[in-house]
Amino acid sequence: MERARERLWRWLDERIGLEDLARLAKKKEVPVHRHTVWYYFGGMTLFLFAIQVVTGILLLLYYRPSANEAFESIQFLMTEVEFGWLVRSIHAWSANLMVFSMFIHLFSTLLLRAYRAPREITWLSGSGLLGLTLAFGFTGYLLPWNELAFFATRVGTEIPGVLPLVGPFLRRLLRGGDDVTGATLTRFYGIHVAVLPALTTVVLAVHLFMVQKHGMSSPPGVEREGPKRSMPFFPNFLLRDLVGWLSALAVLAALAAYFPAELGKKADPFQPAPAGIKPEWYFMAMFQTLKLLPGHILGIEGELLGVLGFGVVGLLLIALPFLDTRAGERPSRFPAVFGITLLVYMVVLTFLGYTMSPTK
Question: Taking the chain, what is the end-to-end CA distance rounded to the nearest angstrom?
């Protein structure tokens, strides 16, 4: 048995260079300090993304992307296919946990200032992955073609339409027409299963390569304290990662089993929108902001100001490594103030979105 394993290792090593990969893994070190716990959320996000890929492929075996058949195909999957409901529930819950884990990864990276030189490209590729993840959530939400998804998508695709000059074009581009129809469903399906996975593969490869090249950064406060401890990535850190992934898998299985994803009623474009339509929780802060803005502010449409405000915040977030270049004993407080303000704002607006009366 031992000899067979050695022969297999040697055969693979001659073809793909296993020894080189092993040396690279053993060379990598992970800083150990009071903030080390935040390093685990990058790997956790990647693990949940892998679950999304596997369950998404299984769902594709039964899903039919047309307005006449999409809802029925999901209904068939959940009622007739063995464990079909469980696969769909795991796909839905892992999407939510992945976005949650990605937000933790984003804010921990921001507050620990891990975007500083030479890690600008790591930050930019991570920001790209956040945008792609939100696009996955937005396009995937419509695919069951149920009432809630239909009207939420109609509201969501209406938002870019308020932009001057390019707004109507963007709205038609997203919808594939003047309104949300079967063409929108087909378009979202194509983007969800082909365009976004292709882009994600490229950006994720860049992000992982940059993480390997530059390693994990230590916060400025830890660096100023002098020489730091570290642990080998393989096997010490990887084993800890595995414990976290198994715990996430247990939580995911429990959520999917006790709170399975619901399908609701089939979308009917000729029916009025039901009261209290809400987007997914990760879009709730933006949705609630637009809802609370007055119709006009200083003669400018309130919704337009809101959309422009989201754009400015997004640009500030992306450009952070180039705005925060001060090093030494007195680093800028802007990143911490910006990050905490943004986080508190998102939490408060999300809370209001779920607790305020839908008529207000």
Answer: 70
